[in-house]
Here is the input.
Amino acid sequence: MKITAAVLEHGGIPKGFEAAQALRVGEVDLAPPGPGEVLIRVAAAGVCHSDLSVINGTRPRPVPMVLGHEASGHVEEVGAGVTDLAPGDHVVCIFAPGCGTCLPCAEGRPALCTRAAAHHGRGELMTGHRRLSREGAPVHHHVGVSAFATHAVLARQSLVKVEADLPPHVSALFSCAMLTGAGAVFNTARVPPGSRVAVFGLGGVGLSAVLGAVAAGAGQVIAIDRFDSKMQAARDMGATHTVKADAHTVEAVRDLTGGGVDVAIELAGSVTALETAWGCTCRGGTTVTAGLPHPDARMALNALQLVAEERVLKGSYIGSCVPQRDLPRMFALYARGKLPVEKMLTHRLKLADINRAMDQLEDGTAIRQVIEFD
Here is the structure.
């Protein structure tokens, strides 16, 4: 079938995405779903820094590629062997699915699935196929999703059925921002009630972590960013304090907390932010990072401090989540008003606006934007 999609022709575009037409919106061919695959009509797709990182070259990926990984939609057709989804089902897309058979999956850590990582690195679906093409030449899938398009074919493992009563523009935000941010709080850091938590970087994922920390009952939730508007958004979502990201951040956080936070969560994708988060963590505390800096980035770490202060530094990918387990739990918290993810939504746009959305993401004038198709 013919679909309309936003295609990245080449990476390494640092800024000025609308002027450069970094993503070209046009016609692409989409093959029907094969065995173990599902065709969906995309309803809404969030605009995330992980997409921007592919455009600017921070996260190199094969091109041409249809970007977009945070999304919701409705099933239109299922391939052979798919028996638990049917046309009309509301689904959200998962960019880090599990195969169920590799060692990380067997240990209950599908985010670290070795099979998914290999296929997605090549621009394939989990099934090993590419269903996108243009004039007979293959077009790559972005982490098995490619949701900046009217339709998408995904491996069954890359979808979770939504049983809750949620509009698509809300459910889409759970598929990346909430899983990653709140998941880092609930699963990776396991924030206990009453604890002191700092969140560094207040994009969609960072604000999801703020919501998660509030829902977990943290006693202090300190939100750190360069932009005043994002700090105000964090206060609106329950942050108890905000601190400007500058040369005095560590001193300010330590003064606020009497020695540092129990848990610092870095979500800016910056080594400087990660080192600052480490500096804000108390003796015996935990520093979590879910940001995605350039593969060549390195951080400086005081090894003696790690030992003598019994500090912990942990990575978190898609919030250490098991999406089939964690999404229903998060939807239930949303229904109770505990995870009001829609508060971070600043723009609802159309696919033709995709490059402007990337500019707004880059310059900090947007938090979470959604491309809507319905």
In short: The first helix runs from residue 17 to 20.
